Amino acid sequence: MEVRHVFALVLLACGVAVLLLAGLALLVLPGPYARVHALSPATSLALPLVCLALALDTGPGRQALKLLFIGLLGALSGPVTTLAIGRTAWRASAPGEEPPS
């Protein structure tokens, strides 16, 4: 087993661990706003880790470049998407009423 594959497995395990913790947080945390915060690491941290692991495993070339680009897009768009979902949930609450928790 090459060193490259070992690093890929470590990155993949870290990405999967972040996804599992985010999924567990969805079950445990109360209210929609806390759940939105649980989803943010899944999109902005786990996806780039998994993409980096896959890019390392495929080796140099076009496929690795595509995977790195997908990971970068996920890292940049994850927080924006989380903000949009939270803002939409906030606006969906009735005026004068406390937002759902």
UniProtKB/TrEMBL annotation:
Keyword Zinc in the entry? The reply is: no
One GO process term, biological-process aspect: inorganic cation transmembrane transport
Q: Which UniProt keywords apply?
A: Membrane, Transmembrane, Transmembrane helix
* Pfam families associated with the record: PhaG_MnhG_YufB
Q: Where are the transmembrane segments?
A: 6-29, 36-55, 67-86
**Does the UniProt entry include the keyword Transmembrane?**
yes
GO terms (molecular function) for this protein are: antiporter activity
Q: What is this protein called?
A: Sodium:proton antiporter
